[in-house]
Amino acid sequence: MKATSILALCALILSVGWGIVRDIRQPKENSVVSYEQLQDKETEVVYLMGMLTDSLPKPKNKRLITKSNISSLYYVYENPGKTFERDLENNIRLNSNWNEFSVTKVDDISAFKSYCYKDISLVLLKSKVGVIDEYERFTINVAWKKNSYCWQQANNNV
After folding, report:
1. pTM
2. Is the dihedral of CA 25, 62, 91, 51 positive or negative?
């Protein structure tokens, strides 16, 4: 095989390979969300959680999940105190852009309130935990998820 043939073959392999990488990096419009879009949603989710929990005590646990088509941040509180719910509701009202929707649209039995802000959801969950030493667990979840109820409302798909 001549050197020019080898060079041409290498160029062909590189161009095909680069085309595959480009397709992976920039998915089709209706498939997964681009990395940049997902990073923007993650930033927005973290910002909104910060506004909602500004005057609240520090959570016992925090969990941020970001993967294709979802960015979700959980704050978990254990025995948060008597004024916790009232303070959180005040923070939600201060940011009056949250619109309440039925918790039946949320796939969690411990959810007792849910809201939409554009295509982002806020779900409040409460449960009793423990067998001997029972305590209250309160979870705040702010999430963006493609095809969720809030996403469908924001994109007029409901």
Report:
1. 0.75
2. negative
Contact status, residue 122 vs residue 105, Cβ threshold 8 Å: no
C-alpha 78/C-alpha 35 separation (Å) is: 34
**Orientation angle between helical segments 84-94 and 35-52, nearest 10 degrees:** 120
Give the residue carrying structure tokens 């990488």: 21
Residues of the chain with pLDDT under 70: 1-12, 14-32, 158
Maximum separation of any 2 CA atoms in the chain, in Å:
81
For residue 71, give the nearest of 96, 100, 34, 124 by alpha carbon.
34
DSSP for 67-83, please give it.
ETTEEEEEEEEES--TT
Nearest CA among 149, 139, 140 for reference residue 119:
149
